[in-house]
Write a structure and sequence with these properties.
heterodimer; A: alpha/beta; four-stranded antiparallel beta sheet; 16 helices; 36% helix; B: eight-stranded mixed beta sheet; 12 helices; 33% helix
């Protein structure tokens, strides 16, 4: 319905030379091909039974309670959940980015390239962070050092991890900046972060995360702090880069709209647990867990009927002061029954790569997923 | 809001006598008039808010941030006017200028037959109970050392003289109206969750039976499931008390569901103003089109086949806005005329205003 649709896109990428022609994303079909290929190959990352707590003087917060998932090569795994659902803490735990104390990883393994990240020595882990696994944080202002130039910060991982010479690293840094769509990249290397706008800073963060050709990119709410038009620019870059570089991505967000646009598979978290996991089309068309369903129903939409009222989920998210022995969603669940209050449901594997952590699935023939 | 200039109280300035009939009248007006010829509650005319930039050793004024640069519109009794735009476009400053929480540089804001923009402090204070504000960050706008009851009662203490029992009754009433348990009245803000804190802020704004509520991103700091709760509350209260809202937000899908008309702001100016259903189904201004196409839709099939307009570059600095149309640097449909001439505020059909030279010319093609 929009006119002049692709005009902006064509004019937008000064880095056209890198990607050649940027094909419009075929979306679902591409995702499906990738997912089916992925199932046979080894996962890039396989996390199981991860548990993280925060110990404070007053209480122990059970932030992550037995989270397990895997990411396949070339796949974009979307992680959604409200604040406090444990999505960021899960990813930070994997790379030991949480300050200890108060944080403590109680159990879990994270197999990455034949090694368990949880067992690695701090030095070995340092070599992985930034080289094999790139990380993009939410707030680009606080994650860039204000007193160092963009060029210095961008060449640092290149020289450290890949042992590049100063001049080669600088050349590569300029290429990277151009890749993420920053005009006159070479000249901007000598600028400081404050000379960049929010959207450009986030591009720098992405360039930095991509600098060593990581196998896995973890992006923690990378567009949350940005305006919608800038968010659209960043999402377009990520779509393009995925096709060019073929790395696996974990994309954390609370925006189901963003997930619908870029993810191949989605993992929904609530109360420090994974409550549902499914390919993106399946999740939106056929949500299984009552929480996912409620979440999708509360969303206002740009299309369809305008309503003066939205559906709501009554009540508050859980406090997580105790290890959950019941379903964390039970107090707010419309289809709650007795068992939900005494036993925490495992994830049940359903047809079509769908998993749901709800007791109702046992009746419909779901098998317990490992 | 209650931090208005303190003026010695005299009998004539006290509100209670005047307040009661006024509110009753508003309710009737909101319910009875048809949307077509609604009475105007507030009229903004050519409003400008400029902030000086001082720099150098002598702190001389070296520039001007044109946060709001010539905005005109009106708000009708009982309606919700949405004000959307990206950060830095001046929407919050506009909301504040309407309540004169910042002083306008030029233009007028007519409310209750008086020009708020040039009213002396004591007269302004008399109008204050009729216009209140809900702020974005419920954490920052509540005094952590005050109990909920004293927060909600502060406007009452400031503008009315109620007995202790009346005051307590009113606080209970307000807490119930916003869905808070009145037995929590003696608790402190930190004991409440984000959504509940926002409810406290709403109760405080309602304390004096206002006509107009300026809601400055009231749900931006809340989680998705809590956002819907607060929005529904605002809709209920509007019905119940005949409130008029200016709803400032960057969340276009939320605005679509809760507003009657929407104003889209860009770089200190309003680009387009239209009824909500029309602005979403047939946007006229290129910026509105781009903004709407940038909003992600929670539907994978739709997202996959969607054609997006992706704007290039960033919003120019309001200290140095481009000549001509202020959107000319990023507009995908820009033509020569746009660089030279500032577009007029044109009326295209009932209630449809747009500031673009070319909007509406290609109506047949859309």
């Amino acid at each position: 319905m929009w006119r002049g649709d692709r005009v902006g896109v064509a004019a937008q990428s000064p880095s056209d030379k890198l990607g050649g022609s940027v094909k419009p994303r075929k979306g679902a079909s591409v995702a499906k091909v990738k997912a089916s290929v992925g199932e046979e190959t080894q996962p890039v990352l396989k996390v199981s039974n991860l548990r993280t707590v925060f110990r404070t003087r007053e209480a122990t917060i059970h932030a992550v309670n037995g989270v397990g998932f895997e990411v396949r090569p070339g796949e974009l795994l979307g992680v959604v959940g409200e604040s406090g659902s444990g999505k960021s803490v899960t990813m930070m735990s994997l790379l030991k980015l949480l300050p200890t104390p108060p944080a403590e990883v109680l159990s879990g393994s994270a197999m990455f390239g034949g090694e368990d990240l949880m067992q690695l020595s701090p030095d070995a882990l340092r070599a992985v962070r930034g080289r094999d696994i790139g990380f993009v944080f939410q707030d680009p202002m606080t994650s860039l050092n204000p007193v160092l130039t963009i060029g210095y910060q961008l060449t640092e991982p290149l020289r450290l991890h890949l042992g590049m010479s100063k001049s080669r690293a600088r050349k590569r840094a300029a290429e990277l900046l151009a890749t993420v769509g920053i005009p006159s990249a070479e000249a901007r290397l000598d600028d400081y972060p404050h000379q960049f706008s929010g959207g450009m800073r986030q591009r720098v963060m992405i360039a930095m995360a991509l600098s060593c050709d990581p196998k896995l990119l973890i992006a923690d709410e990378p567009t949350t702090a940005l305006d919608v038009t800038i968010q659209a620019q960043i999402l377009e870059i990520v779509r393009k880069l995925r096709q060019e570089l073929g790395m696996a991505i974990i994309w954390i967000t609370h925006d189901l709209g963003v997930i619908a646009g870029i993810a191949d598979r989605v993992m929904v978290m609530y109360g420090g647990q994974v409550v549902e996991e499914a390919p993106v089309g399946e999740l939106f068309a056929n949500p299984k867990h009552p929480y996912t369903r409620a979440l999708l129903e509360t969303l206002p939409n740009l299309k369809g009927k305008r309503s003066g009222k939205l559906r709501t989920i009554a009540g508050q998210p859980p406090h997580l002061l105790q290890e959950p022995r019941s379903c964390p969603f039970a107090p707010r669940c419309p289809s709650v029954h007795e068992r939900c209050r005494i036993e925490n449901p495992p994830l049940f594997a359903l047809a079509g790569g769908h998993k749901s952590g709800c007791w109702l699935e046992e009746k419909t023939g779901g098998r317990r997923a490992a | 809001m209650t931090a208005a200039v303190r003026v010695p109280r005299t009998g004539s300035q006290r509100a209670p006598g005047r307040r009661q009939p006024k509110t009753g009248g508003t309710k009737v007006a909101a319910a009875e008039v048809s949307p077509a010829n609604q009475e105007i509650l507030l009229r903004v005319d050519g409003l400008k808010v400029h902030f000086p930039i001082y720099s150098g050793l002598l702190r001389r004024q070296t520039g001007l941030i044109k946060a709001v640069d010539g905005v005109s519109f009106d708000i009708r009794y009982g309606e919700t006017l949405g004000l959307v735009g990206e950060s830095g476009c001046g929407k919050s400053t506009l909301g504040r200028a309407i309540l004169r929480l910042v002083d306008p540089t030029a233009g007028s804001v007519t409310f209750g037959g008086k020009d708020i923009a040039s009213l002396p402090a004591w007269e302004l204070r008399e109008l204050r109970p009729r216009m209140q504000m809900i702020f974005q960050d419920p954490q920052a706008c509540l005094n952590p050392r005050m109990t909920v009851s004293s927060i909600i009662a502060e406007p009452l203490d400031e503008h009315l003289e109620l007995s202790a029992a009346e005051r307590q009754r009113r606080v209970r009433e307000l807490m119930e109206a916003v869905g808070l348990n009145p037995s929590f009245a003696s608790r402190y803000p930190h004991e409440f969750s984000g959504g509940q804190r926002q409810r406290i802020g709403i109760a405080r704004a309602l304390a004096l039976n206002p006509d107009l509520l300026v809601c400055d991103e009231p749900i931006a700091a809340l989680d998705v499931s809590i956002q819907a709760q607060v929005m529904n509350l605002l809709a209920d209260l509007q019905e119940q008390f005949g409130l008029t809202y200016l709803f400032i937000s960057h969340d276009l899908s939320m605005v679509r569901h809760f507003t009657d008309r929407v104003a889209v702001m860009y770089l200190g100016k309003i680009a387009e103003l239209a009824p909500a259903d029309q602005i979403y189904s047939a946007p006229l201004h290129p910026y509105t089109k781009a903004l709407l196409s940038a909003v992600p839709v929670p539907d994978p099939k739709l997202e996959a086949n969607r054609k997006r307009i992706i704007l290039t570059g960033d919003v120019p600095s309001p200290a140095n806005p481009p000549a001509g149309c202020n959107f000319c640097t990023r507009c995908p449909e820009v033509k020569e005329k746009c660089f030279a001439l500032e577009p007029e505020w044109r009326n295209l059909g009932p209630d449809r205003l747009v500031a673009c030279h070319f909007a509406g010319n290609e109506k047949s093609s859309t």
